[in-house]
């Protein structure tokens, strides 16, 4: 099989209808429902210690769960307040959590990736942001050559004139701006009024300051969206010209997420219209020159994400697609998930429980898991498929000391239906996802998932598309 043309994409309505079932997003394997409460902080502590032998670089994630105003579609773990003073106790506990990590980790390991997510990290005052970065630098080996990926999520409505300059000074070099939709009626329905000029001005300023890989987040499936209105938003977004785009599917789950109860279900687009919006979006962005990275992500061909995919270096973790597969991910703050060596560890969801445990000098780990050798092998296979749309079974056999055809005999047999339907090509030990299969790559990955219970799929996961 030759080189994959990552720009090629094909929408097949019959296949979409047949394979659009519930399934994981594979930001991890095994997926979060497999994490268990038997995994506790002592195991996470040991994982940190064990990871030092590899001398692998680090990826640090900080969860800042504060927002000034709630967007009605939001399903994130956050606290709505306008009082930045509410952040002070939380920040103090973040510093203590860093101390706990630093006690067990070789802190000379370089931090090649750093990310602040939320919530809205820029809800913090400038002084608080400076302090958080300063305290991080005291404890970890942050790069000062601007070659790492230091990113932050930003709500353009919540920044001041000099915020971006201050963030650049702190060492951030990548920014993700929330946008969601530019239609005023949609914006009002989800309580996020954000004129195009506001977003565009922030992107222009970020470019002038030397930020790279500027990302915009969009959501399809919101109230009052139609294929026509979202197509209009997309044309404006293409004019704004971000380096990357994330286009997420809105899942309406008011029973789980209280803010969504403010959204009238009757105003949501029909399932057919949602699929039409997605088809138009992928087709238009690919026509505009973006590479369909996979799932909900797009990037310009010269962006590091697209380059990493072409060169076989792309990876997927809890922040989505990343170019840093070699890093141990240490995540701090409420609900955050670390991936250190063969372990996953998740922190407490509530700030009260998180602060109580950290205040007592303990990690706030509530669940996680240590991967078996089979988990590690399957994780590698799924990562190859979801990031690169191909799997070289001969090379995989060498890397993992297995016989690919024997090890995955059951899976290869199950893939015969995908093959017959034109989603995947299989020649010997070589698997390649076709342009028609890229949209449905999660369905192909699910074949390699040893944990899936077909009876509970719909309860644990949203639909693939």
UniProtKB/TrEMBL annotation:
<comment type="subunit">
    <text>Monomer.</text>
</comment>
<keyword id="KW-0627">Porphyrin biosynthesis</keyword>
<keyword id="KW-0411">Iron-sulfur</keyword>
<comment type="similarity">
    <text>Belongs to the anaerobic coproporphyrinogen-III oxidase family.</text>
</comment>
<keyword id="KW-0479">Metal-binding</keyword>
<protein>
    <recommendedName>
        <fullName>Coproporphyrinogen-III oxidase</fullName>
        <ecNumber>1.3.98.3</ecNumber>
    </recommendedName>
</protein>
<dbReference type="Pfam" id="PF04055">
    <property type="entry name" value="Radical_SAM"/>
</dbReference>
<dbReference type="InterPro" id="IPR007197">
    <property type="entry name" value="rSAM"/>
</dbReference>
<dbReference type="Pfam" id="PF06969">
    <property type="entry name" value="HemN_C"/>
</dbReference>
<dbReference type="InterPro" id="IPR013785">
    <property type="entry name" value="Aldolase_TIM"/>
</dbReference>
<dbReference type="InterPro" id="IPR034505">
    <property type="entry name" value="Coproporphyrinogen-III_oxidase"/>
</dbReference>
<feature type="domain" description="Radical SAM core">
    <location>
        <begin position="52"/>
        <end position="288"/>
    </location>
</feature>
<keyword id="KW-0560">Oxidoreductase</keyword>
<keyword id="KW-0004">4Fe-4S</keyword>
<dbReference type="InterPro" id="IPR006638">
    <property type="entry name" value="Elp3/MiaA/NifB-like_rSAM"/>
</dbReference>
<dbReference type="InterPro" id="IPR058240">
    <property type="entry name" value="rSAM_sf"/>
</dbReference>
<keyword id="KW-0963">Cytoplasm</keyword>
<dbReference type="InterPro" id="IPR010723">
    <property type="entry name" value="HemN_C"/>
</dbReference>
<keyword id="KW-0408">Iron</keyword>
<dbReference type="InterPro" id="IPR004558">
    <property type="entry name" value="Coprogen_oxidase_HemN"/>
</dbReference>
<keyword id="KW-0949">S-adenosyl-L-methionine</keyword>
<comment type="pathway">
    <text>Porphyrin-containing compound metabolism; protoporphyrin-IX biosynthesis; protoporphyrinogen-IX from coproporphyrinogen-III (AdoMet route): step 1/1.</text>
</comment>
